[in-house]
């Protein structure tokens, strides 16, 4: 089977049918349930992504941030939600220091 989500989606039922004698009915039901969960999660991700894109289109701070190359709806809404309009920072370097400190905490081992 080829790698990638679409390959698995397109061939899952064929695989289950072909291997029906090797897979117990319980395992078959579990795999189908997981497949349905996967589809639901994809729908949820699409809905949230659409919502984020809509928010970014109507928020002035997001619009300003998205004028920077490489910054799109997800990054702009995350940054606006984290720092608001940036008035808590006296200088740009303060924002940079805050950003480095927050990302360092997330990637450091606990």
TrEMBL record:
Q: Which Pfam families match?
A: Transposase_20
Q: Which domain of life is it from?
A: Bacteria
Q: To which species is this protein native?
A: Pseudovibrio ascidiaceicola
Name by which UniProt lists this protein? Transposase IS116/IS110/IS902 family protein
Q: Which InterPro entries match?
A: Transpos_IS110 (IPR047650), Transposase_20 (IPR003346)
Limits of the Transposase IS116/IS110/IS902 C-terminal domain: 62-99
Q: Where is the signal peptide, in residue numbers? A: none
């Amino acid at each position: 089977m080829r790698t990638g989500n679409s390959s698995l989606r397109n061939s899952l039922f064929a695989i289950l049918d072909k291997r029906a004698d090797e897979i117990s009915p319980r395992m078959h039901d579990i795999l189908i349930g997981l497949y349905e969960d996967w589809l639901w999660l994809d729908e949820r991700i699409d809905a949230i992504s659409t919502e984020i894109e809509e928010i970014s289109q109507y928020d002035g701070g997001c619009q300003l941030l998205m004028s920077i190359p490489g910054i799109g709806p997800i990054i702009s809404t995350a940054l606006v939600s984290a720092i608001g309009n940036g008035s808590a920072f006296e200088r740009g370097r303060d924002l940079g220091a805050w950003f480095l400190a927050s990302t360092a905490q997330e990637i450091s081992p606990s």
